């Protein structure tokens, strides 16, 4: 996960020492940070969460969010990072950060998590693309460690075999858990002689996976493995998430059991919006952001609240625009909005007045929101 702007809410940082740096492929590497005993309570985390790294460059503080590959039981913070260009934050880390150096690391957060059920028989399926393997790896290590009755299936897409990230670690997990973990690799730019595993992970591949891989269930000969799936975890680019999430839903998995994490800005809805809304024009908006109060007018409610504020050049925090990351979380103090389906807020939080600006359709002539959450 990488945020484009810092959130309005306060994030707690601590200085951690870099214990390990390792190059994985030509464009990816890992960083491992030590957690001193006095900070251990601040770095308790759940599988699938992330931390923010803060770096000072040219007098400015740069922030980037990175998912952890470590599992909670390992007692360390390990990150998988991809370098997209020599001008990127990631390249600066790779080039300049040395073992023994100190770096500001935020306390863990994020909601790409699932409830632990160590006493149940579960089937969990993961879909990952490229660097999207990072939180999935955290989940799978944790599930194998804490849920002895859970079986796991991973479908992992990369351009070529050479670009598979954490290949050795994944192979070791399969070796140690041959009856509980099955991994299948897919390649979008390499021919391997089997059409099933050639091409991108998308809705068509999901149908083939269900019919050719997740077929007869050894534990119940009258059903398919797919029919026993309890949770689906998806991480990668927006188009991949949208395609796979909808395919899983259309093949019978409830939306509440489909979890996803986005690794780039994505401006589309994950699921289709089927509801129509009455047209409201000339909407007065008041909002608080970074201790500043702003007022503006929206022409109408044909676009969501966040998108309209960004068009007007307000510095509202965001990352996904798709109801996944929670960066644009705020409190609705005055007015009415329709909050569309999202992956972030709980029903309890919605009932308390919290909304996501990116998923909010304004339904009143006046609204007032507060982005300064503590």
TrEMBL record:
EC number in record: 1.17.1.-
Residues covered by the FAD-binding FR-type domain: 11-115
Keyword Oxidoreductase: yes
Domain 2Fe-2S ferredoxin-type positions: 283-374
Pfam families associated with the record: FAD_binding_6 (PF00970), Fer2 (PF00111), NAD_binding_1 (PF00175)
Domain of life: Bacteria
Keywords: 2Fe-2S, FAD, Flavoprotein, Iron, Iron-sulfur, Metal-binding, Oxidoreductase
Cofactor(s) the record lists: FAD
First-level EC class: oxidoreductase
Entries under InterPro entries matching the protein: 2Fe-2S_ferredoxin-like_sf (IPR036010), 2Fe-2S_ferredoxin-type (IPR001041), 2Fe2S_fd_BS (IPR006058), Beta-grasp_dom_sf (IPR012675), Cbr1-like_FAD-bd_dom (IPR008333), FAD-bd_FR_type (IPR017927), FNR_nucleotide-bd (IPR039261), MRET (IPR050415)
GO molecular function: 2 iron, 2 sulfur cluster binding; flavin adenine dinucleotide binding; metal ion binding; oxidoreductase activity
Name the record gives this protein: 3-ketosteroid-9-alpha-hydroxylase reductase subunit
Source species of the chain: Kaistella antarctica
């Amino acid at each position: 996960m990488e945020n484009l702007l810092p959130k309005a809410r306060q994030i707690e940082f601590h200085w951690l020492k870099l214990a390990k740096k390792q190059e994985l492929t030509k464009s990816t590497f890992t960083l491992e940070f030590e957690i001193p005993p006095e900070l251990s309570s601040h770095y308790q985390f759940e599988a699938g969460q992330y931390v923010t790294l803060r770096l000072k460059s040219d007098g400015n503080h740069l922030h980037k969010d990175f998912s952890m590959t470590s599992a909670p039981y390992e007692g360390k913070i390990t990150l998988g990072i991809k370098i997209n260009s020599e001008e990127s934050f990631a390249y600066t880390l790779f080039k300049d950060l040395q073992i023994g150096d100190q770096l500001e690391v935020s306390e863990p957060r994020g909601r790409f998590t699932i409830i632990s059920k160590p006493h149940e028989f579960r089937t969990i399926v993961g879909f990952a693309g490229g660097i999207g393997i990072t939180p999935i790896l955290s989940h799978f290590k944790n599930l194998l460690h804490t849920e002895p009755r859970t079986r796991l299936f991973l479908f992992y897409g990369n351009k070529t075999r050479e670009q598979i990230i954490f290949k050795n670690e994944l192979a070791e997990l399969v070796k140690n858990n041959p009856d509980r973990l099955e991994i299948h690799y897919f390649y979008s730019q390499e021919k391997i002689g089997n059409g099933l595993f050639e091409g991108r992970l998308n809705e068509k591949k999901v149908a083939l996976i269900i019919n050719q891989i997740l077929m007869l269930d050894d534990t119940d000969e009258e059903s398919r493995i797919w029919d026993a799936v309890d949770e689906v975890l998806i991480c990668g680019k927006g188009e991949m998430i949208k395609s796979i999430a909808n395919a899983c839903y259309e093949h019978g998995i409830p939306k509440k059991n489909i979890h996803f994490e986005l690794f780039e800005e994505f401006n589309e809805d994950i699921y289709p919006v089927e509801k129509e809304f009455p047209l409201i024009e000339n909407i007065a908006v008041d909002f608080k952001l970074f201790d500043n109060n702003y007022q503006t007018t929206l022409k109408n409610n044909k676009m969501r609240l966040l998108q309209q504020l960004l068009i007007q050049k307000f510095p509202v925090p965001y990352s996904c625009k798709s109801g996944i990351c929670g960066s644009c979380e705020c409190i609705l103090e005055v007015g009415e909005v329709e909050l569309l389906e999202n992956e972030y807020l709980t029903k309890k939080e919605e009932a308390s007045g919290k909304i996501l600006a990116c998923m909010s359709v304004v339904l009143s002539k006046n609204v007032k929101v507060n982005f300064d959450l503590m």
